[in-house]
Structure formats: C-alpha cells, structure tokens
C-alpha cells in the first residue's frame, strides 16, 4: 500500500464488487454512465508488475465485466485501457461506448464530437442496478465467493 | 477476414513480428516513436469475441511487448488500450510514455500539454532497431518459432 496513492487510500469510485485480489468500481463519469474500472487491490503500477497468474486473473475479471456490459447494454463498442499516468496503480477502464455518445468514435479522452444526449444518458444510467446485480452475481460465481465488501 | 477492414487488408503499420495468431506492428505515430500495436490476425471486434485461451495468448504477447519496452526504454509509464471504435478489429495499443512527451500525463488521444521535444523524440526513434530486435527474439522464443513474415 502506498500512502500517497488514491487507489490505495480509497476504492476510487462506487464499489460494485470486491474480491481478494481486485475490485470493480463504477466510475463517476456522468457523461458515460457505463464506465467501470477493474482495480488491482495491491499497489502495482504496471501490468507486468503482476505475476503471470495474477495478470491472467485480472484479465479474466476485465473480460467478465466486458461480457456483462455487452449482454446488458448492447454497446457499439467496448473500450479497454490501462493508462495510469496520473494514478500509477493498476486499473483497467472498461467502458461501454455508443454511437450516440458525446465522443464516439473518438476515445473518451479526446475532444467531444457532439452535444450530450441527456435523455439517452439518463436511460442508460437507469439500467445501472441491473448491470451491477449481474456483475456481482457473475463475479461472485467466477471467484467462488460473494463480494468481500 | 472482412474485406472492408483495414486490419484484415493490411498489417496496419510496420510489421515487427508475425505469429500464427497475432502480429506486432510499429505504429506510424511520429510524435510517439515507442507506439506499438498487438493485432489479432483473425477478424474479431471485441476482446470477448476471443475464446478464453486466445485472450490469454493475446495478453501474454501484450505483456511481452510491455516488458521489452520497459527494459529497453525505461519509460515513465506504459499505456495499454484496446479501443477499436474506428477499426473494430482487435488491436492492443502498447505505448511507452515519457514525462517529457507532448501529452504526458494525459492520454495520447487528449490535447497536447506541451511542444514536442524533437531531440528526445529523435533519440527515442534511434533506439527502434534495438527494440525491434529484442521484440523479435523474445516473441519468437515465446511462440516457439521465428517470425512468419
């Protein structure tokens, strides 16, 4: 644990599920209501700071989150990214993208392409409870244990 | 193979190494001379369109490229991303980032933070042959076969 690291000090968002080695949070990104992060619990900066079996475990969780978002929300595309330039504690962004979202097809970090569609954003946000229930159920079954939170 | 897909029709950049299931290319991003992509050879849009053993294989290659970039270039951070909003054919960006680069600590898709440091960019670009040799050697050893190109 690094005392000056935001992802060691806190969850980093609304906690959806916590396992022994990683957690899944819902990011506070109001323009993108289907923006999740898989955060490695221990402090590690780079993907290759993890042992091979830990990397495999991590990517199984990322794939599981992607699969739930695809099944629940039918997005135009899933975006996956581990950047960590500002907070160098391994976290995978898992973002469901839609052709109507403010930035599509640009990355969410690029400049917006169009105005926000507040009605569609609200409709997507309203589906969060279903997504979170499915994430908890599937992650729990995968880990062989319910959430630790 | 999808006839209208740029990553089915061509390599998508300067080919560094090709294996049976994936290839590694050096991206033509002049401001970021340590920008690579791991491209799945078969047409698949999403990470979870791959079978679990294929995802594991893919991420082993991504990790190997990351490891070579870290060892050869000692970057401030590695950035990994699979976006594919424009070209929905699975490709992983593997980018070595430096605290002096034009966008750091922002993502490369964000607005630049400072002018390009042409001398440092040139010095980094000059190391490409060493990086490519190491990538070919390590990927070949990992795959148990030399490059198919």
Highest CATH level, the class of chain A: Alpha Beta
The domain count of chain A comes to 1
Main sheet of chain A? Answer: 5 strands, antiparallel
Question: Using only CA atoms, what is the Rg of chain A?
Answer: 15 Å
CATH homologous superfamily label of chain A: HIT-like
Q: What's the CATH architecture of chain A?
A: 2-Layer Sandwich
- Here the CATH topology of chain A equals HIT family, subunit A
Q: What is the ordering of alpha helices and beta strands of chain A?
A: HEEEHEEHH
As a percent range, the share of helical residues of chain A equals: 25-40%
Number of strands of chain A: 5
Characterize the overall form of chain A.
globular
Greatest chain-chain contact: A-B, 34 and 34 residues
Give the spatial strand order of the biggest sheet of chain A. Answer: 1-2-3-5-4
Percent in strands of chain A:
15-25%
Description:
The structure is a homodimer of 149-residue chains. The first copy, chain A, is of the alpha+beta class and 149 residues long. Chain A has one domain (6-143): HIT family, subunit A, CATH 3.30.428.10. Chain A contains four helices and five strands. The first copy, chain A, has a five-stranded antiparallel beta sheet with strand order 1-2-3-5-4, with helices on one face. In chain A, strand 4 (77-82) and strand 5 (91-97) form a beta hairpin. The mean pLDDT of chain A is 96. Strand 4 of chain A pairs antiparallel with strand 4 of chain B, so a sheet runs across the interface.
